[in-house]
Structure formats: C-alpha cells, structure tokens
Task: inverse folding
C-alpha cells in the first residue's frame, strides 16, 4: 500500500508528464513558413477565419490559408512600394480585406492606395486599382462593413475617405 509521500510523488509525476505531453503536442502543431523575402509589417485577420493577410517590405501582400499552412495568393503590382511608418526594422502598416472578401487595400510609399479585386482575373487591368490623394506615404487602410467605403491614413496624419462602389 502506498503512503502519502508516494501518492504525492505520483501526483507530481503525473502533472509533469501531462505538461510534457501538452508541450510535445504544441510543438507538433507549430510550423514556420518563410514565403516573404523581407520583414512582415502587417498581420491582418480576414473575414474568413481560416485566412490571414500579410504585408511585407518585399512589397508583396500574401493571403494565407491556415488549413493548408501556405500561401493562397500573392498580391503585387508594378510600382507598388508598401507604405509604412517606423524604421530600423520596426516598420508598421495596415492592409485590410473587405468584409465580403472581394477587395484588399494597402497604402503605398508614394501616397497612392492600391486596391486588388480578388474576383478579377490575375494580371488583368481590373485586378488592381490605384487611388491617388495622399501627399505622404499611405500607411493604413480600412473598409466599411458594407464594403462601399474605404478609409486610408497617411504618415503625416491625413485621412481620406473613398467611395469604392465603382472600383
């Protein structure tokens, strides 16, 4: 028959084993993917719970799929350089997908705002629109719930409101 010390030892060992199993399980589910070639400046959740939007200093945005653990789509455009604030590897920006998952918007260093239409044929003229207003780098973009309005902000504190029904 086990005494109290033996039971206490068994209990502590059981907890320790459970913690080790939990850590091993967590380690099995961890995966690192490096599809961007430079620092990621933005991680933005999308309306689809299984997807994530990233923006990087490599001037690409990527739509990720959590189930496949990989890139679904790469968004880039000629003359697009990601707009961001901060320096020395601490840059930040905000790109966002519309609630209907049709559009992605991101600001550019030259003050333009690029809007990708995910339903258009890749490479077609309709796939990317450029909105021009900001005098400084456009660093943030956000969509209204009805997906008709876009608001963007620049490095100098300016805010622009866009009607995007015809984009």
Result:
């Amino acid at each position: 028959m086990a005494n109290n010390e033996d039971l206490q030892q068994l209990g502590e060992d059981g907890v320790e084993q459970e913690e080790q199993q939990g850590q091993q399980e967590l380690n099995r589910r961890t995966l690192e993917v490096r599809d961007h070639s430079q620092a990621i400046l933005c991680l933005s959740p999308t309306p689809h719970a299984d997807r994530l939007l990233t923006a990087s200093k490599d001037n690409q945005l990527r739509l990720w799929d959590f189930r496949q653990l990989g890139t679904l789509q790469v968004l880039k455009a000629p003359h697009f350089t990601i707009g961001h604030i901060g320096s020395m590897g601490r840059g930040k920006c905000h790109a966002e997908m519309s609630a209907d998952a049709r559009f992605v918007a991101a600001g550019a260093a030259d003050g333009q705002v690029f809007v990708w239409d995910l339903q258009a044929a890749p490479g077609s003229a309709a796939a990317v629109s450029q909105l021009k207003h900001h005098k400084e780098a456009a660093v943030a973009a956000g969509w209204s719930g009805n997906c008709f309005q876009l608001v963007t902000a620049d490095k100098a504190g300016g805010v622009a409101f866009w009607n995007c029904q015809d984009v």
Notes: The mean pLDDT is 80.
